[in-house]
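Hey L., structure's done. Input below.
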Amino acid sequence: MVGLRAEGGMKKGDSIMSYEPAGDRYESMIYRRVGRSGLKLPAVSLGLWHNFGAVDDTDNARKMIHRAFDLGITHFDLANNYGPPPGSAEETFGRFLARDFATHRDEMIISSKAGWDMWPGPYGNWGSRKYLLASLDQSLGRMGLDYVDIFYHHRPDPDTPLEETMGALDSIVRQGKALYAGISAYPPEETRRAAAELRRLGTPCLIHQPRYSLFDREPEDGLLDVLAEEGIGCIVFSPLAQGLLTDRYLQGIPEDSRAAKPHGFLDRAAVTEGRLAIIRRLGELAGNRGQSLAQMAVAWVLRHSIMTSALIGASRAAHIEDGVSALGNLDFDDGELEAIDRALG
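Output:
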Protein backbone atom coordinates (compact mmCIF):
# COMPACT_ATOMS: atom_id res chain seq x y z
CA MET A 1 0.00 0.00 0.00
CA VAL A 2 1.33 3.42 -0.92
CA GLY A 3 0.47 6.25 1.47
CA LEU A 4 -2.24 4.25 3.25
CA ARG A 5 -1.65 2.92 6.74
CA ALA A 6 -2.92 -0.47 7.82
CA GLU A 7 -5.64 1.14 9.93
CA GLY A 8 -9.40 1.55 9.67
CA GLY A 9 -11.71 -1.41 9.49
CA MET A 10 -15.32 -2.01 10.31
CA LYS A 11 -17.59 -0.65 12.97
CA LYS A 12 -20.97 -1.91 14.10
CA GLY A 13 -23.57 -1.39 11.38
CA ASP A 14 -21.11 -1.39 8.46
CA SER A 15 -21.96 -3.58 5.49
CA ILE A 16 -19.50 -6.37 4.63
CA MET A 17 -20.20 -6.32 0.89
CA SER A 18 -17.09 -6.42 -1.29
CA TYR A 19 -16.27 -3.75 -3.86
CA GLU A 20 -14.54 -4.01 -7.21
CA PRO A 21 -14.26 -0.71 -9.15
CA ALA A 22 -15.80 -0.48 -12.61
CA GLY A 23 -13.31 -1.28 -15.34
CA ASP A 24 -14.55 1.57 -17.56
CA ARG A 25 -14.41 4.25 -14.88
CA TYR A 26 -12.04 6.56 -16.79
CA GLU A 27 -13.75 6.42 -20.17
CA SER A 28 -16.29 9.23 -19.88
CA MET A 29 -15.06 11.56 -17.11
CA ILE A 30 -13.43 14.83 -18.15
CA TYR A 31 -10.15 15.68 -16.39
CA ARG A 32 -8.94 19.27 -16.26
CA ARG A 33 -5.49 20.61 -15.47
CA VAL A 34 -5.18 22.51 -12.18
CA GLY A 35 -3.88 25.96 -13.11
CA ARG A 36 -0.29 25.73 -14.37
CA SER A 37 0.47 22.53 -12.45
CA GLY A 38 0.91 19.01 -13.75
CA LEU A 39 -2.10 17.76 -11.77
CA LYS A 40 -5.51 17.05 -13.26
CA LEU A 41 -8.81 16.75 -11.40
CA PRO A 42 -12.12 15.34 -12.54
CA ALA A 43 -14.48 18.09 -13.71
CA VAL A 44 -16.88 16.87 -11.02
CA SER A 45 -15.47 16.05 -7.57
CA LEU A 46 -17.24 14.72 -4.48
CA GLY A 47 -17.35 16.67 -1.23
CA LEU A 48 -17.97 14.95 2.11
CA TRP A 49 -19.22 18.05 3.95
CA HIS A 50 -22.63 16.45 4.52
CA ASN A 51 -23.98 12.89 4.77
CA PHE A 52 -20.73 11.16 5.78
CA GLY A 53 -20.71 11.91 9.51
CA ALA A 54 -21.37 9.62 12.44
CA VAL A 55 -25.04 10.66 12.43
CA ASP A 56 -25.48 9.42 8.84
CA ASP A 57 -26.15 6.04 7.23
CA THR A 58 -22.74 4.41 6.74
CA ASP A 59 -23.93 1.96 4.10
CA ASN A 60 -25.43 4.78 2.05
CA ALA A 61 -22.21 6.79 2.38
CA ARG A 62 -20.16 3.82 1.20
CA LYS A 63 -22.45 3.29 -1.81
CA MET A 64 -21.96 6.94 -2.77
CA ILE A 65 -18.16 6.65 -2.60
CA HIS A 66 -18.28 3.50 -4.72
CA ARG A 67 -20.56 5.06 -7.32
CA ALA A 68 -18.46 8.20 -7.51
CA PHE A 69 -15.27 6.22 -8.15
CA ASP A 70 -17.04 4.04 -10.72
CA LEU A 71 -18.01 7.23 -12.59
CA GLY A 72 -14.41 8.44 -12.74
CA ILE A 73 -14.52 10.78 -9.75
CA THR A 74 -11.03 10.45 -8.33
CA HIS A 75 -11.08 13.51 -6.05
CA PHE A 76 -12.66 13.33 -2.59
CA ASP A 77 -12.71 16.51 -0.54
CA LEU A 78 -12.83 16.62 3.26
CA ALA A 79 -12.00 18.92 6.16
CA ASN A 80 -11.15 18.40 9.81
CA ASN A 81 -14.58 19.66 10.94
CA TYR A 82 -16.80 17.69 8.54
CA GLY A 83 -19.36 15.45 10.24
CA PRO A 84 -21.22 15.86 12.46
CA PRO A 85 -19.60 15.48 14.90
CA PRO A 86 -16.42 17.18 13.65
CA GLY A 87 -13.86 14.67 12.43
CA SER A 88 -16.33 11.87 11.84
CA ALA A 89 -16.46 12.29 8.05
CA GLU A 90 -12.71 11.68 7.91
CA GLU A 91 -13.12 8.63 10.15
CA THR A 92 -15.87 7.25 7.90
CA PHE A 93 -13.82 7.86 4.78
CA GLY A 94 -10.79 6.28 6.41
CA ARG A 95 -12.70 3.03 6.93
CA PHE A 96 -13.73 3.01 3.27
CA LEU A 97 -10.12 3.59 2.21
CA ALA A 98 -8.86 0.68 4.29
CA ARG A 99 -11.59 -1.73 3.20
CA ASP A 100 -12.19 -0.83 -0.45
CA PHE A 101 -9.37 1.31 -1.84
CA ALA A 102 -6.13 0.00 -0.32
CA THR A 103 -4.84 -0.91 -3.79
CA HIS A 104 -6.25 2.22 -5.46
CA ARG A 105 -4.73 5.01 -3.32
CA ASP A 106 -2.52 6.23 -6.16
CA GLU A 107 -5.60 6.69 -8.35
CA MET A 108 -7.17 9.07 -5.83
CA ILE A 109 -6.79 12.73 -4.92
CA ILE A 110 -7.72 13.21 -1.27
CA SER A 111 -7.88 16.67 0.23
CA SER A 112 -8.48 18.06 3.69
CA LYS A 113 -8.54 21.50 5.32
CA ALA A 114 -8.17 23.30 8.62
CA GLY A 115 -9.33 26.73 9.67
CA TRP A 116 -12.54 26.34 11.67
CA ASP A 117 -13.13 25.52 15.32
CA MET A 118 -12.01 21.97 16.08
CA TRP A 119 -11.00 21.57 19.76
CA PRO A 120 -11.14 23.70 22.93
CA GLY A 121 -8.58 26.33 23.77
CA PRO A 122 -6.59 28.88 21.77
CA TYR A 123 -4.89 26.37 19.44
CA GLY A 124 -7.93 24.70 17.87
CA ASN A 125 -9.02 27.29 15.32
CA TRP A 126 -7.98 29.78 12.61
CA GLY A 127 -4.52 29.74 11.01
CA SER A 128 -1.56 29.50 13.36
CA ARG A 129 1.29 27.14 12.58
CA LYS A 130 0.49 25.26 15.80
CA TYR A 131 -3.12 24.64 14.73
CA LEU A 132 -2.51 23.74 11.10
CA LEU A 133 0.24 21.19 11.74
CA ALA A 134 -1.61 19.59 14.67
CA SER A 135 -4.88 19.49 12.75
CA LEU A 136 -3.36 17.76 9.74
CA ASP A 137 -1.72 15.15 11.95
CA GLN A 138 -5.15 14.45 13.47
CA SER A 139 -6.77 14.26 10.01
CA LEU A 140 -4.15 11.81 8.78
CA GLY A 141 -4.76 9.65 11.84
CA ARG A 142 -8.52 9.64 11.30
CA MET A 143 -8.16 8.61 7.66
CA GLY A 144 -5.27 6.20 8.19
CA LEU A 145 -3.10 8.07 5.66
CA ASP A 146 0.56 9.01 5.49
CA TYR A 147 -0.26 12.07 3.37
CA VAL A 148 -3.10 13.95 1.69
CA ASP A 149 -2.78 15.13 -1.88
CA ILE A 150 -4.03 18.67 -1.19
CA PHE A 151 -4.14 20.50 2.12
CA TYR A 152 -6.00 23.81 2.34
CA HIS A 153 -6.15 26.64 4.78
CA HIS A 154 -9.93 26.77 5.11
CA ARG A 155 -10.40 30.54 5.61
CA PRO A 156 -8.31 33.68 6.18
CA ASP A 157 -7.24 34.43 9.74
CA PRO A 158 -7.42 38.17 10.56
CA ASP A 159 -5.11 37.84 13.58
CA THR A 160 -2.32 35.58 12.33
CA PRO A 161 0.32 36.96 9.93
CA LEU A 162 -0.24 35.59 6.44
CA GLU A 163 3.46 34.66 6.37
CA GLU A 164 2.96 32.30 9.32
CA THR A 165 -0.03 30.56 7.79
CA MET A 166 1.59 30.16 4.38
CA GLY A 167 4.80 29.07 6.08
CA ALA A 168 2.87 26.30 7.78
CA LEU A 169 1.50 25.12 4.42
CA ASP A 170 5.01 25.18 2.99
CA SER A 171 6.31 23.10 5.93
CA ILE A 172 3.49 20.59 5.51
CA VAL A 173 4.40 20.03 1.86
CA ARG A 174 8.14 19.83 2.61
CA GLN A 175 7.44 17.26 5.35
CA GLY A 176 5.61 15.10 2.80
CA LYS A 177 2.30 15.27 4.68
CA ALA A 178 0.66 16.92 1.65
CA LEU A 179 1.67 16.99 -1.98
CA TYR A 180 0.12 20.37 -2.75
CA ALA A 181 -1.07 23.46 -0.85
CA GLY A 182 -4.32 25.32 -1.39
CA ILE A 183 -6.51 28.01 0.12
CA SER A 184 -10.25 28.40 0.51
CA ALA A 185 -12.57 31.40 0.91
CA TYR A 186 -9.76 33.95 0.46
CA PRO A 187 -10.83 37.23 -1.20
CA PRO A 188 -8.96 38.44 -4.30
CA GLU A 189 -6.20 40.59 -2.77
CA GLU A 190 -5.46 38.13 0.06
CA THR A 191 -5.31 35.40 -2.57
CA ARG A 192 -2.73 37.38 -4.48
CA ARG A 193 -0.67 37.95 -1.31
CA ALA A 194 -0.93 34.28 -0.30
CA ALA A 195 0.17 33.16 -3.77
CA ALA A 196 3.15 35.52 -3.68
CA GLU A 197 4.27 34.28 -0.27
CA LEU A 198 3.96 30.61 -1.21
CA ARG A 199 5.84 31.29 -4.43
CA ARG A 200 8.61 32.97 -2.42
CA LEU A 201 8.82 29.92 -0.16
CA GLY A 202 8.99 27.58 -3.14
CA THR A 203 5.62 25.84 -2.65
CA PRO A 204 3.21 27.21 -5.28
CA CYS A 205 -0.43 27.72 -4.42
CA LEU A 206 -2.05 24.94 -6.41
CA ILE A 207 -5.75 25.70 -6.06
CA HIS A 208 -8.41 27.93 -4.52
CA GLN A 209 -11.77 26.68 -3.26
CA PRO A 210 -14.42 29.44 -3.23
CA ARG A 211 -18.17 29.25 -2.87
CA TYR A 212 -19.73 29.86 -6.30
CA SER A 213 -23.11 29.18 -7.82
CA LEU A 214 -25.94 30.79 -9.72
CA PHE A 215 -27.03 32.22 -6.36
CA ASP A 216 -23.57 33.30 -5.17
CA ARG A 217 -21.50 35.05 -7.83
CA GLU A 218 -18.97 36.83 -5.63
CA PRO A 219 -15.93 35.15 -7.28
CA GLU A 220 -16.80 37.06 -10.46
CA ASP A 221 -15.84 40.29 -8.64
CA GLY A 222 -12.11 39.89 -9.12
CA LEU A 223 -11.23 36.46 -7.74
CA LEU A 224 -11.49 34.53 -11.02
CA ASP A 225 -9.27 37.14 -12.67
CA VAL A 226 -6.64 36.80 -9.92
CA LEU A 227 -6.63 33.01 -10.25
CA ALA A 228 -6.16 33.27 -14.01
CA GLU A 229 -3.29 35.76 -13.62
CA GLU A 230 -1.57 33.69 -10.91
CA GLY A 231 -2.05 30.34 -12.65
CA ILE A 232 -4.02 28.92 -9.73
CA GLY A 233 -6.69 26.29 -10.28
CA CYS A 234 -10.25 26.78 -9.06
CA ILE A 235 -12.59 24.20 -7.55
CA VAL A 236 -15.91 25.66 -6.43
CA PHE A 237 -17.94 24.38 -3.50
CA SER A 238 -21.72 24.58 -3.18
CA PRO A 239 -22.34 24.90 -6.96
CA LEU A 240 -25.86 23.63 -6.19
CA ALA A 241 -26.36 26.18 -3.38
CA GLN A 242 -26.72 23.51 -0.68
CA GLY A 243 -29.15 21.58 -2.88
CA LEU A 244 -31.43 24.50 -3.74
CA LEU A 245 -30.38 24.36 -7.39
CA THR A 246 -31.88 20.92 -7.91
CA ASP A 247 -35.25 19.60 -8.95
CA ARG A 248 -35.89 18.61 -5.33
CA TYR A 249 -37.03 22.14 -4.44
CA LEU A 250 -39.27 22.76 -7.44
CA GLN A 251 -42.31 21.87 -5.33
CA GLY A 252 -41.12 23.26 -1.99
CA ILE A 253 -38.91 21.91 0.82
CA PRO A 254 -38.57 18.10 0.89
CA GLU A 255 -38.68 16.61 4.37
CA ASP A 256 -35.37 14.79 3.86
CA SER A 257 -33.54 17.81 2.44
CA ARG A 258 -30.73 19.85 4.00
CA ALA A 259 -33.18 22.65 4.77
CA ALA A 260 -35.22 20.19 6.84
CA LYS A 261 -32.29 18.73 8.82
CA PRO A 262 -31.66 20.06 12.34
CA HIS A 263 -27.88 19.73 11.84
CA GLY A 264 -27.78 21.14 8.31
CA PHE A 265 -26.25 24.41 7.08
CA LEU A 266 -29.18 25.47 4.91
CA ASP A 267 -31.59 27.65 6.86
CA ARG A 268 -35.19 26.68 6.17
CA ALA A 269 -36.18 30.34 6.59
CA ALA A 270 -33.95 31.23 3.62
CA VAL A 271 -36.05 29.08 1.28
CA THR A 272 -38.62 31.77 0.58
CA GLU A 273 -41.41 31.74 -1.98
CA GLY A 274 -39.44 34.29 -3.97
CA ARG A 275 -36.41 32.04 -4.05
CA LEU A 276 -38.56 29.04 -5.00
CA ALA A 277 -40.05 31.04 -7.89
CA ILE A 278 -36.54 31.71 -9.20
CA ILE A 279 -35.70 28.02 -8.86
CA ARG A 280 -38.76 27.12 -10.94
CA ARG A 281 -37.79 29.61 -13.68
CA LEU A 282 -34.28 28.18 -13.76
CA GLY A 283 -35.74 24.68 -13.92
CA GLU A 284 -37.64 25.63 -17.07
CA LEU A 285 -34.45 26.93 -18.68
CA ALA A 286 -32.63 23.73 -17.76
CA GLY A 287 -35.43 21.70 -19.33
CA ASN A 288 -35.00 23.67 -22.55
CA ARG A 289 -31.37 22.52 -22.56
CA GLY A 290 -32.37 18.91 -21.98
CA GLN A 291 -30.88 18.99 -18.49
CA SER A 292 -32.03 18.80 -14.91
CA LEU A 293 -31.60 21.99 -12.87
CA ALA A 294 -28.63 20.44 -11.05
CA GLN A 295 -26.96 19.54 -14.34
CA MET A 296 -27.37 23.08 -15.66
CA ALA A 297 -26.07 24.57 -12.41
CA VAL A 298 -22.94 22.41 -12.55
CA ALA A 299 -22.41 23.14 -16.24
CA TRP A 300 -22.85 26.87 -15.58
CA VAL A 301 -19.95 27.05 -13.09
CA LEU A 302 -17.75 24.87 -15.31
CA ARG A 303 -18.20 27.18 -18.31
CA HIS A 304 -15.24 29.32 -17.20
CA SER A 305 -11.86 28.39 -18.68
CA ILE A 306 -10.28 28.97 -15.24
CA MET A 307 -12.54 26.37 -13.62
CA THR A 308 -10.93 23.05 -12.75
CA SER A 309 -13.75 21.23 -11.00
CA ALA A 310 -17.19 21.56 -9.44
CA LEU A 311 -17.34 20.06 -5.96
CA ILE A 312 -20.76 18.53 -5.42
CA GLY A 313 -22.38 17.01 -2.36
CA ALA A 314 -24.89 14.20 -2.38
CA SER A 315 -27.25 12.28 -0.13
CA ARG A 316 -27.66 9.32 -2.48
CA ALA A 317 -25.82 7.82 -5.44
CA ALA A 318 -28.40 9.11 -7.94
CA HIS A 319 -27.41 12.69 -7.08
CA ILE A 320 -23.81 11.92 -8.07
CA GLU A 321 -24.97 10.39 -11.34
CA ASP A 322 -27.03 13.51 -12.03
CA GLY A 323 -24.08 15.79 -11.37
CA VAL A 324 -21.72 13.84 -13.61
CA SER A 325 -24.33 13.83 -16.38
CA ALA A 326 -23.91 17.62 -16.56
CA LEU A 327 -20.69 16.98 -18.49
CA GLY A 328 -22.76 15.95 -21.51
CA ASN A 329 -23.62 19.60 -22.21
CA LEU A 330 -21.24 22.27 -20.93
CA ASP A 331 -21.85 24.86 -23.67
CA PHE A 332 -24.03 27.94 -23.24
CA ASP A 333 -24.86 30.44 -25.95
CA ASP A 334 -25.28 34.14 -25.20
CA GLY A 335 -29.06 33.84 -25.28
CA GLU A 336 -29.05 31.14 -22.61
CA LEU A 337 -26.76 33.10 -20.32
CA GLU A 338 -28.91 36.21 -20.71
CA ALA A 339 -32.06 34.21 -19.94
CA ILE A 340 -30.42 32.80 -16.80
CA ASP A 341 -29.50 36.31 -15.64
CA ARG A 342 -33.07 37.49 -16.22
CA ALA A 343 -34.44 34.54 -14.26
CA LEU A 344 -32.16 35.41 -11.36
CA GLY A 345 -33.56 38.93 -11.40
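Residues 273-288 form the longest helix (16 residues). The first strand starts at residue 31 and ends at 33.

-- N.
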